[in-house]
Specification:
With about 375 residues, the chain is mainly α. The protein has helices spanning about 1-35, 60-75, 75-100, 110-115, 135-140, 155-170, 175-185, 185-195, 210-225, 255-265, 270-275, 335-340, 345-350; strands spanning about 50, 55, 245-250, 290-295, 320-325, 330-335, 360, 365-370. The longest helix is centred in the first third of the chain and has 35 residues, at about 1-35.
Length: about 375
């Protein structure tokens, strides 16, 4: 019994010493971590508005919902950096259209919230920068078929979104509600307003996506307008740019857009990059519609790249290779097979790993691809 107690004491002592040293190392690591790393919750602004309408941040639940989106978009850094860079490229197209159609400038941030300024397609089929559904697009003047889908046309889809928003504003009398209806539909929003006997977005209990929607747009706006305040330092040279474009009239069918692009002194990739609304490799155009194709001005594209070698980098000559077949006449150690054939053991194993074991068995056929002397 005494031996058991002694053994237990010894083990406990060893464990204590081990724990002591491990703890000291961990404490030192934790101290260094705390000295060199910190995460801050950004100051929440006192006033936030969307399209000239004030967000009631004095209400605790509203403050919390906005804070959530501010945190998400501040600390999802890669996404927000892309927002900044792409906004510099596409906002110059969107802004004058919004102004011309009487839509508040803040709605350009709605396009970011919808798609991240990318021609994506949602699981429900909403398409393009403005995430327009098929039926909604047609209702608002967009041409959509198998060959042409103007939801991918930035200028035209922006006009369609403006038309929808103007109608929504007339219906609801509030730009905030108009934006909410853009996310969940005018009918759906009107139904909830009637059901809940509420006339203000901030008084409504809505689905998860729409309940976050205005707050997300407002948070994106706040960060993009005050980038350095939220830790984003993006230099002018790092921003994306849209090259100057000119229009080419297309009023006929096109049997092959790759050939058509070459006739314009560009290539198929450039044609489709600036005209993503052309959905096929050809255009039948049986209705004889007239379209304008956007082409970057000369000097802003390379129609045919050539492989360029980096200076001072040695390029290896092409290798002449032989395939060596090895027939195993009797079961032999793999190492001995390699020695007998004067080949590298590791290469033999790697190139025959599916068939080799510790020994090469009689009747097996191995092979090795090696450089010719």
């Amino acid at each position: 019994m005494k031996k058991i107690i002694s053994l237990f004491f010894i083990l406990a002592s060893v464990g204590f010493v081990f724990s002591f040293f491990t703890s000291a190392e961990d404490d030192n690591h934790q101290t260094k971590f705390n000295e060199n790393y910190a995460i801050f919750s950004p100051n929440q602004p006192n006033l936030i508005g969307f399209a000239g309408e004030k967000m009631p941040l004095e209400q605790e639940d509203i403050k919390e919902r906005f804070d959530r989106e501010l945190l998400v978009n501040t600390y999802w850094q890669s996404q927000t950096v892309l927002f900044v860079k792409k906004a510099h490229k596409y906002f110059p197209v969107i802004e004058p259209i919004l102004k011309g159609e009487g839509i508040p400038d803040d709605f350009k941030y709605l396009a970011i919230a919808e798609s991240g300024l990318a021609n994506i397609v949602s699981p429900s089929g909403a398409t393009g920068f403005w995430q327009i559904m098929n039926a909604t697009g047609r209702e608002n003047g967009l041409l959509i078929d198998k060959q042409i889908d103007e939801r991918y046309h930035l200028a035209k889809s922006t006009l369609a979104a403006c038309n929808y928003l103007n109608e929504a504003y007339v219906k609801f009398g509030s730009w905030t509600l108009a934006a909410a209806s853009y996310n969940m539909g005018k009918t759906g929003l009107a139904k909830q307003m009637k059901r809940q006997n509420a006339s203000n977005y901030y008084d409504l209990l809505l689905n998860e996506e729409t309940s976050r929607y205005i707050f997300r747009i407002a948070a994106i706006k706040e960060i993009l307008k005050n980038q350095k305040t939220y830790g984003f330092h993006i230099r002018e040279k790092e921003l994306y740019n849209l090259p100057p474009l000119h229009h080419i009239l297309l009023d006929s069918s096109v049997s092959n857009f790759a050939d058509y692009a070459l006739d314009l002194n560009i290539n198929y990739k450039i044609l489709k990059e600036y005209n993503p609304w052309l959905r096929q490799a050809e255009l039948k155009n049986t209705a004889n519609f007239a379209y304008f194709i956007d082409i970057p001005d000369e000097g802003y594209y390379i129609s045919k790249n050539k492989t360029q070698l980096i200076e001072n980098v040695e390029i290896k000559e092409s290798l002449n290779l032989d395939t060596i077949k090895i027939e195993i006449n009797k079961t032999t150690a793999v190492k001995k097979v390699a020695e007998m054939n004067e080949i590298d053991l590791e290469e033999l194993i790697l190139q025959n790993i599916d068939v080799l074991d510790i020994k090469a068995k009689k009747g097996q056929e191995l092979q090795l691809i090696k450089e010719r002397n």
